[in-house]
Design goal:
single chain, about 170 residues, alpha/beta, Rossmann fold, 5-stranded mixed beta sheet, 5 strands, disordered N terminus, disordered C terminus
């Protein structure tokens, strides 16, 4: 297994020994028993970071290669460019970072730490933006009002619902 410094703090993750061996055994057997099922991981905040690390470690440890889709909601930007570039060499891992506008957790000022993957920026009015390019660009205006309330999972659900409502209402207008 490659030695990659994931977040810059080796003591936090102790290398890539992230998954308990029992969980690895169960997931490996589930994947073998259901080979045609999609492998989708999701998480909010630290759970989003954990879902990225889970897919990465599974990809490194399992001999069979699978396609992984990861959907994170409000995860903090803790990955360094070294890990991001390494992960981009794994084309079977696709990451979507869903971020509420003004979510203070998503813009924590960690120096040289970024979100990785495709960013989906949600606005509360049903508008959203997708950023495919430059995974190392900070996209937030520091003059905006950021709040911990925008980090709440229910706010994410509401903003996703607003996208559906906005697009359905605009499609039905004559």
């Amino acid at each position: 297994m490659p030695a990659v410094e994931i977040v810059g703090v080796k003591d936090v993750l102790k290398g890539l020994e992230f998954i308990d061996e029992n969980i690895l055994y169960v997931l490996k057997n589930l994947f073998e028993f259901f080979p045609d099922y999609k492998k989708i991981f999701t998480g909010h905040s630290k759970g989003g970071v954990d879902s990225i690390l889970l897919a990465f470690e599974l990809d490194c440890k399992l001999t069979e290669k699978y396609e992984y889709e990861i959907y994170t909601f409000g995860n903090p930007p803790i990955f360094n460019t070294k890990f991001a570039n390494y992960l981009h060499k794994h084309p079977n891992i696709t990451i979507f970072n869903v971020i509420n506008s003004y979510d203070i957790i998503c813009i924590l000022p960690f120096p040289n730490r970024f979100h990785i993957g495709i960013e989906v920026l949600l606005r509360d009015n049903g508008i959203f933006y997708i950023y495919h390019k430059n995974p190392f660009k900070k996209r937030f205006n520091p003059l905006n009002f950021f709040s911990i309330l925008n980090h709440d999972l229910n706010t994410y659900i509401k903003n996703i619902y607003n996208i559906d409502t906005f697009h359905n209402s605009s499609l039905t207008k004559e």
